[in-house]
Amino acid sequence: MKRLLLSIITLLIATYTFSQNDSLILNNGNTIVGELKNMDRAIATIETPYSDKDFKIEWEGIKKIYTVQSYLINTSDGGRYNGRIESSGEKNVKIFLEDGGTIEIPFMDIIYLKSVDKGFFDRIDAFIDIGFNLTKANNVMTFSTRSGIDYMAPRWLLGLTFNTNFTKQDEGPNSNRTDGGLSYKYFLPKSFYIPVSINYLKSSELSLQARWTVLAGAGYYFFRTNRLYWGADIGGAFNAENYMPDSIPDNNSFEGYLGTDLNLFDIGDFSLSTNVKVYPSFTDSGRWRFDFNLDTKYDLPLEFYIKLGWSLNYDNRPIPGGSDMDYVFYTGFGWEWP
User: Fold this and answer.
1) Which residues touch 235 (CB under 8 Å, ≥6 apart)?
2) Does 55 share its domain with 196?
3) Do 139 and 44 reside in the same domain of the chain?
4) Domain that holds residue 322
5) Which of 118, 152, 177 lies at the terminal end of a domain, its last residue?
6) What is the pLDDT along the chain (338 residues), one digit of tens a residue?
7) CA distances from 36 to 47, 90, 141, 147, 291 (A)
8) FRET pair for 114, CA 20 to 30 Å: which of 37, 125, 151, 198?
9) Are residues 263 and 322 both part of a single domain?
């Protein structure tokens, strides 16, 4: 009798625990019960009460999913929904929307999940990495940092980046470079979006004390899947430049721009992101600029990673005494959250 009563109590506790948590049924038949935090770049993160570390699971390795909390859900066709998810058949899921409606979509059409039941900090993604090189010849020392933080809302994304590079040597001039930006992206239906950003660059190689570029435009994602994002945007920009030395007059100009972004992240522990922008000037006839950034990242345990990067800025009409090109090759070790 005691054994039967104990079994019933255990079953009730297990049933209650299961009903109060999200659950993932994997392709191999295993079930993981806990709190599904997010899914990004085809990797789902779930926290369980029986492990001090979060589980990371490939999205395509999940057979069925059931959630009790609400998520911001992005789909490959540009759809953005708020609701909880429940598997419907082998390959589909139902999204129970917060307004009371439901929709059914293929499971693999979901490309991003983020809990909306949590607070402000649960919508933030951030990273920081540091690089250091020392060469015996001329005692050349290079110190670099890259950092960024994003806040994801149901219809928009706000991002901030800040990067530095400083080189010191016994024989020859020192050099420094600082760049960063504040970006805002509003997502429209059917994979369209509106980008607005303020970008900053300081470069001793380009004799730039400061370059501020404010741009706005319209963009479209050609591909948004669990393997890659690829989009392009076009618009206009205002460019304000202060030079070194101060005796050179400042320059303000209006430009057009054409840009593209590519992110690849289903290549094992590697990911790659690249951004290209071309700026033809409207007010300085014949002048054009070109900005290029490439980052490759290899993921390590505990959210650490190794990064290799390359940034390049080109101006076909540099100021007297300044170079027409500045570039940085970067290696660093970093950490990302969450």
Assistant:
1) 195, 215, 216, 217, 218, 256, 257
2) no
3) no
4) 122-337
5) 118
6) 555 444 444 444 444 444 458 899 999 989 999 989 888 888 898 888 877 778 889 898 999 999 988 888 989 888 888 889 999 887 899 999 888 889 999 999 999 888 876 667 778 889 999 998 766 556 778 899 999 999 988 789 999 999 999 888 777 677 889 999 999 999 998 899 999 999 999 998 899 999 999 999 999 999 988 888 999 999 999 999 999 877 788 999 999 999 999 999 867 788 999 999 999 999 999 999 999 999 999 989 888 999 999 999 999 998 877 889 998 888 999 999 87
7) 6, 20, 44, 26, 38
8) 198
9) yes
- Could you tell me the CATH number of the domain that includes residue 238? 2.40.160.40
CB neighbours (10 Å) of residue 62? 19
Closest C-alpha to 226, from 253, 263, 261:
263
